Amino acid sequence: MKITSSTGARFKILVEESAEYGGEDGHPADIYVADYVQADDPAQDQVENWLPVATRPADETDPSWAPDGRVAFITDVDGGRRLRTARPGEPRSRLLVQDDDVEQAVISADGSRLAYVAGSPARLFVADADGQHRREVPLGEVRPSEIAISPDGRSIVVANGDYRNEGLFLVSAEGSKHKLGAAAVGAAFVRAPPAQERQHALEA
Length: 204
Hints:
Number of strands: 17
Strand order of the largest sheet: 5-6-7-8
Order of helices and strands: EEEEEEEEEEEEEEEEE
Shape: globular
Helix content: under 10%
Radius of gyration: 18 Å
Structural class: mainly beta
Distance between the termini: 7 Å
């Protein structure tokens, strides 16, 4: 997991714990919110106050953080890959959409919109961040394998999983699209960090 932050900061992070390394009892993959505390010496940085996002015993993967503190994630509860949301520390999670075969989901940085991939063959859907007003985004022959959503929720970058037409496509929520490049497998929208920020890796 890669973290970028200002020196001396204390800030919240999402930690996705793999089922493979979850512990000797082989418990499922879990998602936590924790405090990342930076020291003057990067080797002394600490992760504290681990709080599980959900309390049900199931695999939880692919977290996406909303500005209001909710975390959207995919869980295998109920016999399918369901998209749910929860506030860390609260006992209940809520189903966001009815699809039971969700592969990936992301919430825009402004908290306005949700984009996710579901179905076989894979299809792209958008909805309000609370799961309302769900609709499919037409992609033609593009089969989404990885997605990233713009901070305002108006555009989505889609990596095509069809080897016959590999590449990245920029898609509007209304379905217009154009190809950005070939032979790419994924992308992310990021904000340029201040010059004084440092970057280092944390292995969880």
